[in-house]
Design a protein that fits this description.
CATH architecture of the largest domain: 3-Layer(aba) Sandwich
Strand content: 15-25%
Largest sheet: 10 strands, mixed
Number of helices: 11
Order of helices and strands: HEHEHEHEHEHEHEHEEHHEH
Helix content: 40-55%
Length: about 325
């Protein structure tokens, strides 16, 4: 920016002239700072609540890859499993509200408050930024399993109450809730084996350590497509786009049944509203990218559509729904 001499006030003395010039220079410096391009935010950490390989991890990496350049930052995904997501959530809840520590979490963000006596956080400790993805859970077995269909599994479970175990991504996770609600509705009793993410549970399923797993479709889809897993049913109301060959739980005598998982981005309480809005808009731009939508669909999900305001309303309602399910199913706090 140029300052013309005609823009400077007339001087009546040496002192007044020096004072006027100094004031003009200060004004120029301020304008220069305001006009300067925004500095890079630095390194933003996406704390994923599960181990590498699960749906939360996958979405953190897909979104983070394109989110960073939009906010002039480098995004690093840090997997912090433990406590069904409580460890990562506590970390972000206690972080400085500077926009550099964000949480990538799912349904257990709301469910843990009903399932754990101590979570180390409250709902209002984090601010919803944006919905990243939503999709169904899927009940899967290894390709060599004797269970060829979901009704075969249910029939065996009725004959042998609590003898058949199923793996989930951890207590309070979307897969845990979907499993408990599914088997409760089907009136069978099975034994839950919580893991630290869908990845580890599916690894043990393939290794024969557990006979059944309930996973996000996102995490299981690559193994289903590879022929290593057999999908018995999905928890969406209708057959899911891209997975039309997998029947729904509702088709097995449970009409109207649906239990979807979601993944979202959260920031610590106290993060400036301007930062929340900037990040929310950046996520929206990422999720409307055709390449990102293709990748999410390839994993078995659909890209999220909710910005900060809408996502907060969604999360608040989900918390109410979770409490109702916990009461109906009889799930106990850990």
């Amino acid at each position: 920016m140029l300052v013309k001499t005609t823009d400077l006030p007339l001087c009546r003395s040496y002192l007044s002239c020096v004072t006027s010039v100094r004031a003009a220079l200060i004004a120029l410096m301020v304008l220069t700072v305001l006009a300067a391009p925004a500095q890079a935010a630095g390194t933003i950490r996406f704390y994923a609540i599960v181990a590498a390989g699960g749906s939360v991890d996958a979405m953190a990496r897909i979104v983070g890859e394109k989110f960073g350049p939009l906010v002039d930052a480098t995004v690093v995904v840090e997997n912090k499993p433990g406590g069904g997501g409580n460890l990562a959530t506590q970390t972000v809840a206690r972080a400085a509200p500077d926009g550099l520590s964000l949480l990538v979490s799912g349904n257990n963000h709301t469910s843990n408050l009903s399932l754990y006596k101590e979570t180390g956080y409250q709902m209002d400790d984090l601010i919803p930024v944006a919905e990243l993805m939503r999709g169904p859970a899927v009940i899967v077995v290894a390709a060599q399993s004797p269970y060829q269909s979901f009704d075969q599994l249910l029939a065996d479970a009725k004959r042998r109450p609590k003898e058949i175990s199923f793996g989930t991504a951890g207590i309070g996770t979307a897969s845990h809730f979907a499993a408990e609600y599914t088997f409760f509705t089907a009136q069978v009793k099975m034994t839950s084996v919580p893991y630290r993410g869908s990845g580890p549970s599916l690894t043990d399923l393939l290794g024969g350590q557990i006979p059944v797993a309930v996973s996000s479709l996102v995490a299981a889809m690559p193994l289903i497509k590879a022929g290593k897993l057999r999908a018995l049913a999905v928890t969406s109301l209708k057959r899911w786009p891209g997975a039309e060959g997998i029947p729904t739980v509702a088709e097995f005598g449970m009409p109207g049944f649906e239990q979807l998982s979601w993944i979202g981005l959260f920031a610590p309480k106290g993060t400036p509203a301007a930062t929340i809005e900037r990040y929310s808009q950046a996520v929206k731009k990422v999720l409307t990218d055709p390449d990102v939508q293709r990748r999410v669909a390839g994993l078995g999900g659909v890209a999220g559509e909710l910005g900060a305001t809408e996502f907060k309303k969604f999360v608040d309602q989900d918390y109410v729904t979770v409490q109702q399910i916990v009461k109906s199913v009889g799930m106990k706090p850990d």
